[in-house]
Amino acid sequence: MENKKNSLVYSKKYVSLTRDKLIQIIQSQMSRERFQHVLGVEQVAVQLAEKFGVSTEAASIAALTHDYAKERSDKEMQELIFSEKLNLEWLDYGSNIWHGPLGAVLVERELGISNPDILNAIRHHTIGAEKMTLLEQVIYVADYIEPGRNFPGVERARVLAAENLQEAVRYETKRILQHLIEQNRKIYPKTIATYNKWVANS
Ligand SMILES: [Fe+2]
Ligand SMILES: [Fe+2]
């Protein structure tokens, strides 16, 4: 696959780090497997950003940072929820739900990224949101279809994403909810709110 991401030079508009330095920090935060996933998300996010008229720089930064908190310990994250007086409901759902919103907190605090669109893309990358900007949609979809993903339906999601970003968001939202239900998993209410807004007939 053509790889345009390496030509990305950050303007310092969103982060004071170079892309190489940001990548180095991200790599230090996670396993090799997750780091590969993050690079895959960046590759797809930059492609989608180009296609749908979103800043490729913002897409690159949001993609590289989207799982920043994923491998922090539960204890550290639980303490952060208490100390920052964040949503106590997250405690009932664990890392899958809290790594997005807490990632946004840590990315702002530790990497100095304050752009609200980037922070919302990190915040909403797992559960979506009723309203998502194009950048948020790009990251939500790229996380689902990056080249390392391999599950029934991912090809369909890739085809949709190449044509229509909103259709890809709809498809992904429905499939995620179906998957959670099939596995008898607890559904975080905002996942249903995302489904109601993007998928359900009004
Ligand atoms: Fe994630
Ligand atoms: Fe991810």
TrEMBL record:
Residues 30-157 form the HD/PDEase domain. It comes from the Bacteria. It catalyses: P(1),P(4)-bis(5'-adenosyl) tetraphosphate + H2O = 2 ADP + 2 H(+). InterPro entries: Diverse_Catalytic_Enzymes (IPR051094), HD/PDEase_dom (IPR003607), HD_domain (IPR006674), YqeK (IPR005249). Its EC number is 3.6.1.41. SMART domains: HDc. It holds the Pfam family HD. GO terms for molecular function: bis(5'-nucleosyl)-tetraphosphatase (symmetrical) activity; metal ion binding; nucleotide binding. Keywords: Hydrolase, Iron, Metal-binding, Nucleotide-binding. Coiled coil: none annotated. SUPFAM superfamilies: HD-domain/PDEase-like. This is bis(5'-nucleosyl)-tetraphosphatase (symmetrical).
